[in-house]
Structures are given as structure tokens and as C-alpha cells.
Amino acid sequence: MRNQFRAGPTWAEVTPKAHFLNRRALISGAAAMSLAGPALAKISARPSALSTDAALNSLEDITSYNNYYEFGTGKEDPAAYAGALTTSPWTVKIDGMVEKPGDYALEDILGKVSLEERIYRFRCVEAWSMVVPWIGFQLSDLLARVGVQPGAKYVAFETLMRPEEMPGQQSGILEWPYREGLRLDEAMHPLTILATGLYGEALPNQNGAPIRLVVPWKYGFKSIKAIVRISLVDKQPPTTWNMINAPEYGFYSNVNPNVDHPRWSQASERPLGGGLFGGRQPTMMFNGYEDQVASLYAGQDLTVDF
Ligand code: MTE
């Protein structure tokens, strides 16, 4: 099916030269900086027509300013502390309303799916944004392989619980493990991927290694990191930020410049690295993916059921 798509741009084609050079410098210094852990193996991935040709953020932007509360609440904490997380071996439990439930070794999953590079805009609910050359595969591919039973309506995700390696989990800042969820049609959408790499290499720990969700039309907190469990369920699952503060963080949390966060405007965003014009830029409906995803929400009042 993917063959019918026009091949999209690759990161090497769209990376501004300065960023590319910066990236090369970072890679050569990676061991010293333990930027991405020891495994910097090249990953081969096909380009995708679903990639944007927007200017990429540098590897440094993407890996040095992160949200990952398991390693602390500061933006620099994940880069400083996530390197200690053991990401191999890794097992993903797939359970609930599926034909083939089980504990799947990540390497077995990766042996079956076809990896693509997906260059996506990424918009955090805190109003910063970036453009990332993810490597991953469609969640729909995995779900088709395990067989979704007819009554399933939602997909629930859980992050690893390992307080000895994830010091943030020793605090009560969030209710652990971190949880997220999608409606089944959102999970099956071709834009929804499980990412295992970025910039042509294995996912850095601070970005959610070894496997994280990426849903580019939703605020970044929906894109859960270090996934160990995927459950097919018939009811809307509890999700971390929604449990903490439902009026501020809806279950859907689609990027929407017309619905402000109660404490700040969502009309514009700050691109990491300054962006093309160095300042703020307007936020786009569904983060620019309106043509592809608006139909999922036909008849849904996104100001109420956000
Ligand atoms: N997943 C887990 N397990 N823990 C987290 O704290 N933070 C979320 C999301 N996934 C988070 C998480 C938030 S708020 C954002 S904006 C993105 O991860 C940030 O992804 P990045 O660090 O790769 O930019």
C-alpha cells in the first residue's frame, strides 16, 4: 500500500546545512556526551510521502530540551539522566481485546514491520514546537498483526515502571506509570506511528527509547515514551495528564489554535532553535494535519470534547 505514495523528502535533503554539520559534530562527540547512549547503529528506513518538508530542528534541539518526568521536571533532566535507563532487552505486552495477546520482544516486532522515516511537526501543549525526522512504523501495522477484536474502541498505552532507573518515579509528581490513550480510529490512522529512531539512528533515551508513540496532530503529551504495554479496550482509558487536571488536558488534546489552555494562549508557538524568523509562529489547526485528520472528528464539538 505504501508503494503508491510518492517518496517524500529525507532528512538529509531537507536539513539545513548548519544543522547537518552540527549533527555530525554531535555524533562524533556522542560518546563523550552520552547523547544517545552506546547504540548509534544506523537504521535504514524508507522515505514517506507523509513527511513534511518543513525545516528540521537540529539533533541537539531535539535531544537537549525534553519533557520526560520519569527523569525530572526540568527540560535538561532527561538528557542528563535518561542515559542510565536499560532499554535492551525490551518487551511490549499487548493485551485486552486482541486475537493474539502476548509479551512481544521488541526485536521480534521490528523484524516484521517496515520502518519509514516520518518527518513530522511536533507541538507541545506548553506552546513550543519542533520538526523531527522520526523513524518508525504505523501503529495500524502492529494492531493488524495482533488482530483487533470487534468490540475494541480504544487503545491504552503504558510506560515502563522502573523507579530504580527512573528517579522521577520515586516522587509523587505524577501517578505512575505514565499512561496515554487513543480512540481506535486515531490509533489506526496512517499518521500515527511507533517511533524507534530519529535522525537515522536509534531513539535517544531522552526521546523515549526504545519505542514511543508519535501522534503529530495532538499535543506532545499524548506521545507516550518507553512503552511496555498496549491494551485494546472498550472504554476510554484513564490518561496521565487528564487524570491530574481534566479541565486543562482533554483526552483528545488535538492541537487547536482556537481553544486556549486555561492559563495561556494556544494561538501561536515558539519553534525550538528559533525557527525561520527567530520568533513565534502561528499554530495550525491539528498542527497542520487538518486535511488528513479533520474527518475523524466530524460532528464532535472540539471546544467541549477537547
Ligand atoms: N512520556 C512519558 N512516559 N513521560 C513524560 O513525561 N512527556 C510528554 C511526552 N511523552 C512524557 C512522555 C510530553 S509533555 C511531551 S511534550 C513529549 O513527550 C516530549 O517529547 P520529546 O522529549 O521527545 O520532545
How are the secondary structure elements laid out?
Layout: H1 11-14, H2 17-28, H3 30-33, H4 59-64, H5 77-81, E1 91-96, E2 102-105, H6 106-112, E3 116-123, E4 128-138, H7 139-146, E5 154-159, E6 179-183, H8 184-188, E7 193-198, E8 201-202, E9 212-214, E10 227-233, H9 240-244, E11 268-271, E12 281-282, H10 290-293
Parallel strand pairs: 1-10, 4-11
Antiparallel strand pairs: 1-2, 3-4, 4-7, 5-6, 5-10, 7-8, 7-9, 11-12
Question: What does this entry look like structurally?
Answer:
- This protein is α+β, with helices and mostly antiparallel strands and 306 residues long.
- The chain has one domain: Oxidoreductase, molybdopterin-binding domain (Sulfite Oxidase, Chain A, domain 2, Alpha-Beta Complex).
- A hairpin with a 4-residue loop joins strand 3 and strand 4.
- Ligand MTE binds next to loops.
In short:
The chain has 306 residues and is of the alpha+beta class.
**Structural class based on helices, strands and sheet pairing:** alpha+beta
Shape: globular
The succession of helices and strands, N to C, reads HHHHHEEHEEHEEHEEEEHEEH
Uncertain runs with pLDDT below 50, 5 residues or more?
A: 1-6, 16-39
Q: Can you identify the CATH superfamily?
A: Oxidoreductase, molybdopterin-binding domain
Helix fraction, binned, reads 10-25%
What's the end-to-end separation, in Å? 32 Å
| Mean of residue pLDDT values | 90
